[in-house]
Amino acid sequence: MSDRESRPRTECDPADSTVTVRVRDVNTDSDRVTDLDVERGTVLRDALLDAGLSPYARLTKRVNCGGRGLCATCGVRVRSGEPTPDHWHDGLAARFGYPRLSCQVRVDEPMTVELVEKVVWGGRE
Questions:
Q1: What is this structure's pTM?
Q2: Domain tally for the chain?
Q3: Does 8 fall in a domain?
Q4: What is the 3-state secondary structure (H, E, C) of the chain?
Q5: What is the CATH number of the domain that holds 24?
Q6: Using one digit for the tens of pLDDT, what is the confidence trace for 31-67?
Q7: Is 124 inside a domain boundary?
Q8: pLDDT by residue (tens digit) across 81-104?
Q9: Could you tell me the residue range of the domain that residue 62 belongs to?
Q10: Residue 4 lies in a domain
């Protein structure tokens, strides 16, 4: 069973079951923007991976914690619609300007996120 299959999804009213997540990939020449329709309660990391938009660098695509919030390699910048922080890393992110861990962000409202450059981990492809 994959990490995504083992994570519970939140039950919601079918009329309001999806929200839009706008994803900006600032690492491309065209500054590509993709809109995703995401079920409320979905983990942001899972939504990105399902859409073929990896939050990981070249070297961390295979070597990461699998969404457990331990390795800090799936960081994204939340530009609007930022959810309330509830993970220990979120406090550091707010204080020092670090990206949020996409594996610890649940999509409950529309949001805009940026896929950030991963200089330390070999850059994004």
A1: 0.79
A2: 1
A3: no
A4: CCHHHHCCCCCCCHHHCEEEEEEEECCCCCCEEEEEEEECCEEHHHHHHHCCCCCCCCCCCCCCCCCCCCCCCCEEEEEECCCCCCCHHHHHHHHHCCCEEHHHCEECCCEEEEECCCCCCCCCC
A5: 3.10.20.30
A6: 789 999 999 999 999 999 999 999 998 888 888 999 9
A7: no
A8: 988 888 888 888 888 888 999 999
A9: 16-115
A10: no
